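Quick one, T. Sequence first:
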Amino acid sequence: MATQCDFEFIHAADIHLDSPMRGLARYDGAPIERLANCAREAFSNLIDYAIAEHVRFVVIAGDLYDGDWRDFNTGLFFIQEMGRLRDAGIRVVLLYGNHDAANVMTRSLDLPANVHSFDHKQPSSIEFDELGVVFHGQSFERRDVTDNIARAYPAPWPGRLNIGVLHTALEGNSQHASYAPCTLGELAAKGYDYWALGHVHQACVLHEQPYIVFPGNLQGRHARECGPKGAYRVSVRDGAIDALEHVACDVMRWAELNIKADGIDEAHQLIGRITQALEAAVNDADARTLAARITVTGRPACYREIMRDQEGFIADVRAAAVALAGDRAWVEKVKLKIAPALDTSDPRRQDAVSELAELLTQAGGDETLGAQLRAEFGALVAKLPAELRADPELEMVRQLGDGRLDHILDDLGAYAIAQVTARGD
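Structure tokens:
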């Protein structure tokens, strides 16, 4: 039986080194170079932390890379960072996921001796005897692994701390492609002490005793990946998992700010309310660059003032961010989902608006209309280039491709009502 000792390790995943930042060129003032280097900087932050905290090893649970390299610079950067860990006496356990599966990568470099990777042909085990730790895992052979590969993982080794490493969405997670599907119950029953998962970009401790954990991605890449991003530091005491601590590694912090505009009389007052929200988000970002998506809702009295010059209003919002924090705050997008204040002095006008709203509500529940719209929109989306269909920022395209019309009809309905009620000038 191996000697038990106390130590810490890092569990990370979904690093996506040199991930392309699609669509940024269409945003005025986008810090393109800063965004393009975020994944590397976040990874270097992780390495810095591991060395400073004297952890014994780092587990990377898939999607180290974002796909095949454009050139060898991506791989050379990784080798360089692994060399820093080697010099500090820190080993690495590496599993490849759907983005860096064996059949995705056409280039390769020899890994340093301190990096141990899982085979993609079958489950295997890697032992660190002096720590009393054994890892079980299987890398992806191809991008679309739809089998429950965890089912074939080895039985736990007696007298060892058993860590399962798996790239999976788990069953029932509709936000991510169902790669290597399995259930929480299956993993808990396997008999391992810790499951180091990857693929889901939101950090989450799904289960304790045993711990089943998604660390999330290391750096948010767009507005749907908000909040702190990083990895978990895991403490082992007396041969058992003792504590977990989330460690932020991101260099740019994404935030979605929802601003209520009801009761605001003038546009400059709304700018003031947005500035307050930006200031709070900048403070929460803890000296990181803030990337903010702002959605304004409600029925402000200044609706017509704003809608007459939407570009000017959005420019004022961006200027307020620059005045507040300089290059440490970037407004990625401003979404105006506002409507004019209802004119209760004209009952006929209100009856017309109510009738329009009722028709739009009925349209959302009309199965025949829904099927027709899905067919027409689906055919249109299918003709788009693959890179546009995959762009996480083109939210409406993604919804249409999935056949979801609810949010789109809501947005169109709000726009139609706003246009009708704005005819009072």
